[in-house]
Design a protein that fits this description.
The structure is a single chain. With 171 residues, the protein is mostly beta strands. The protein has two helices and ten strands. The protein folds into two domains: 30 residues, no CATH class; 136 residues, Sandwich (Jelly Rolls). The strands form two sheets. Strands 1, 2, 4, 7, 8 and 10 form a six-stranded antiparallel beta sheet that branches. Strands 3-9-5-6 form a four-stranded antiparallel beta sheet, with no helix packed on it. α1 crosses α2.
């Protein structure tokens, strides 16, 4: 804030760009904030959304963020399977409202004969706009359908949530 006021006092009102408040202009430049959190335990998926323990971030600024969810997904079956199993990754905000995503499933196990194990590190990306400071976002996951003998897990090993502050849209 002090820097913005100093710039405005040195360069006059023209520095505030078409009469905009120099403090707001300076706030728009607060970029580069980033954070990461890792899952703290494995999660066996059910058909209901469940929190991925530890994969939670508190976003400190009002504005736009890019959030990446990386999921370490493991599929196993008691016998060779030929079903389309799906793991679904979800991002929710403080009120457990699901954030829209362009991709519904993070992992689909292909219908291949004799496939009894599969592991993949898929990721998803969301663009969110916060309207309050200290907004909490967390990763959640579920499986598409309950199939006897099949287990889908989100493993702790490589599961993370990352957020990068893009800026404040003060239009």
């Amino acid at each position: 804030m002090v820097q913005a006021l100093a710039l405005a006092s040195r360069h006059g009102e023209d520095h505030s760009v078409e009469g905009r408040d120099p403090v707001l202009l300076w706030q728009r430049q607060i970029t580069g904030w980033a954070a990461i959190a890792a899952a703290s335990s494995d999660l066996t998926l059910t058909t209901s959304n469940q929190d991925v323990a530890g994969a939670t971030l508190t976003l400190p600024h009002i504005g736009e963020y890019e959030i990446d969810g990386g999921f370490d997904v493991e599929y196993t079956a008691v016998t060779a399977s030929a079903t389309d199993a799906a793991a679904i990754g979800v991002l929710t905000d403080s009120g457990d409202t699901e954030v829209d995503s362009p991709r519904a499933g993070i992992l689909t196990v292909p219908s291949v004969d004799n496939l009894d194990a599969f592991r993949s590190p898929p990721s998803q990306r969301w663009l969110v706009t916060t309207t309050a400071i200290d907004t909490v976002y967390k990763l959640r996951a579920r499986k598409g359908a309950a199939v006897a003998g099949e287990t889908i897990k989100v493993l702790q090993t490589h599961t993370t949530i990352k957020a990068r502050y893009i800026g404040r849209n003060i239009g």
